[in-house]
Amino acid sequence: MVVEAKTKTSSEDRIARHSRIRKKEVAKKVGEVIAKSCLEKGITKVAFDRGGYPYHGRIEALAAAAREHGLQF
């Protein structure tokens, strides 16, 4: 079964983007939101496509946060 998911940012997330929060911290928050959303829908295992970008920095932070909140890659 393949499910493609996307998230929308809330006004709280938009405010965070414009404040002085570091990009890695925002990526961690996105990973957390994605994990919670997936788990609410019963999705526990996902495939992570980094889209050709190196696996470090923000991408690594997003994936680590999603794993910490229960998603399996």
Task: Characterise this structure.
By secondary structure, this protein is an all-alpha fold. The protein has one domain (11-68): Nucleotidyltransferase, domain 5 (2-Layer Sandwich), CATH 3.30.420. 51% of the residues lie in helices and 0% in strands. Helix 2 runs parallel beside helix 3. The longest helix has 18 residues, at 23-40. The protein is globular and about 35 Å long.
CATH class: Alpha Beta
Rg on CA atoms, Å: 12 Å
Q: What is the helix content?
A: 40-55%
Percent in strands = under 5%
Any chance you could write out the topology, listing elements then pairs?
Elements: H1 11-18, H2 23-40, H3 58-68
Keywords summarizing the entry:
mainly alpha, single chain, Nucleotidyltransferase, domain 5, 3 helices, globular, 73 residues
Task: Give the structure's gist in a few sentences.
With 73 residues, the chain is an all-alpha fold. Helices cover 51% and strands 0% of the residues.
